[in-house]
Amino acid sequence: MKPYAVPVAFSARRIAAMVLRYWYLLRSSWARLTELIYWPAVQMLMWGFLQTYLSQQTSTFARAGGVLVGAVLLWDILFRGQLGFSVSFLEEMYARNLGNLMISPLRASEFVVSLMIMSILRLAIGMVPVTLLAIAFFGFNLWALGLALAAFFLNLMLTAWAVGILVSGLVLRNGLGAETFAWSIMFLFLPLTCVYYPVTVLPPWLQTFAWVLPPTYVFEGMRALLMAHTFRVELMIQALALNALWFAAAVLAYLALLASARRNGSLMQTGE
Amino acid sequence: MDALSEPAVRADRLAKVYKTSTAVAGISFALTRGTITGLLGGNGAGKTTTIAMLMGLVTPTAGSMRVLGAEMPRERYKVLHRMNFESPYVEMPMRLTIRQNLRVFGMLYGVPRLSERIAEVAAQLELTDLLDRPTGKLSAGQKTRVSLAKALINTPELLLLDEPTASLDPDTADWIRTHLERYREEHGATMLIASHNMAEVERLCDRVIFMKQGRIEDDDTPARLRLRYGRDTLEEVFLDVARGRENRAAAQ
Of A49, A53, B31, B53, which sees the most CB atoms within 10 A? Predict the structure, then answer.
């Protein structure tokens, strides 16, 4: 037998292996690739035309050019970012491949990082063409937001990953019965993070909850930028601080759920 | 004890209790390096849970185990790259081709010169012509060979097998057994095989551990077990153990 070196604690090669695994899967299925673009395009077109109509009716919307299209694009970054993470994870459940991964040298941290990379990759495949469509149809250029877009993107992705990590832990522990969280949990954020309206619209007691969610700061920041032409740095810093807490809590929850799955034998039965 | 003289696996009073049932009730055994051991028992005897604990998939309730010198599950990442597992009940991603699957798992296991190793394993398992075919489009026998190729991609020192020839035709099953024998001879690997196929166990295993209701009921070589139970075949011994019949020879 050949002598073995103790493997490194965090391996870029193992992360690359997992990214390659998901890339092979995406590449093999035109349906999976099409779906990445289809829903964001439909959403953007629907809200874009609604905004066009409203801006013809009221001066407020006429002044707030692109605010609905901007909101839907940022919402899709949040929603599709989480889905990109969770769907890649669910693919292992559907393929009944989790057992193979869990007995391999792949570490939990490497698995999570590979899912984060895949969420960006899937998001890019879906969103880049849709942002170009937004320019073509409505003259709204998301890329023109520049540095602000980078701050929005970073904060939204951190939240998306935190939710994705938590959902993956729930599915690990409870099997595919918990799959519904992957598809639905983010919709709770839709009214609470005030994607399409200012936080002040919410009743005061609900505003407290809204300000606990990092995306609320992003959507407020986006409206400030598009309507008042002001980039509110303090909102982005507050969102980043909250995201750090959310992300840490999600990682701890994932590790606890994984340990619980090992105790309960859930990893041996990864079906329903 | 130096690393090589230490058993490949040593379990000491290993137990797993779920909420309402005891899957494994404090078993102790050691697997000498380079041997093939059969883990036998009826459904629910605790074989799969035992193997899952050895791989770190399930955390034991009590007891301890050392695998390839590492304390499991605490030190699992020191040795997971030196062991592997094959079971027809754990599938490989179906849309990926055999080559893609072997590449992914080879990278996960840190296999050097991976392309060469994939070609080598594929040739040994007669998969070369199928390498670029999606795994989901293979026959049951071909899928088993792919699972075995994945299990051998890292040239493991310890190979855990859960019913490796279940649902295969006799010819393919014989072919797999021959390959496992050859792998053990060439690499001195240790194997633990959970199986319900007594002919397979008699042919491959140096030793047999019988489990029943989470406990070890008997533990010996196939020949000595047959002699001790006064039976001609291991299958008859299995039935004696499973049905709680007395050791016939001892009773006489």
Answer: B53
> Is residue A135 domain-resident?
yes
Please give the mean pLDDT across all residues of chain B.
90
**What ipTM was reported for this prediction?**
0.88
Closest listed residue to residue A117, CA positions, set A39, A213, A243, A26:
A26
d(CA B236, CA B217): 15
Distance separating alpha carbons of residues A240 and B87, to the nearest angstrom: 45
List the single best residue of A98, A100, A107, A267 to mutate versus B (max B Cβ within 10 A): A100
pLDDT tens digits, B82-122: 999 998 778 889 999 999 999 999 999 999 999 999 999 99
Contact B193, B164 (CB under 8 A): yes
- Interface test with chain A among B107, B132, B154, by most A beta carbons within 10 Å: B107
Total domains in chain B come to 1
Do B59 and A262 count as a contact with CB atoms less than 8 A apart? yes
- Per CB-CB distance under 8 Å, the chain B contacts of A99 are 57, 85, 87, 90
Residue B120 forms part of a structural domain: no
Smallest Cβ distance to B93: which of A25, A263, A268? A25
How far apart are the CA of A107 and the nearest CA of chain B, in angstroms? 8
CATH for B76: 3.40.50.300
Question: Among B156, B148, B146, B150, which residue's Cα sits nearest to residue B188?
Answer: B156
Q: How many CB pairs below 8 Å do chains A and B form together?
A: 114
In a domain, A32, yes or no: yes
The model's pTM: 0.90
Task: List chain A residues with CB under 8 Å of B80.
Answer: 103-105
**Does a structural domain hold residue A10?**
no
Q: How many domains does chain A have?
A: 1
CA distance B69 to B200: 29
| Domain-located, residue B14 | yes
Q: What percentage of chain B's residues is helix, strand, coil (to nearest 5)?
A: 40, 25, 35
The boundaries of the domain holding residue A217 are 22-268
Contacts of B104 in chain A (CB under 8 A): 17-18, 20-21, 24
CB contact B188 to A (< 8 Å): yes
Q: Has residue A169 been placed in a domain?
A: yes
Domain containing B84 equals 9-90+157-246
Inter-chain contact A14–B84, Cβ cutoff 8 Å? no
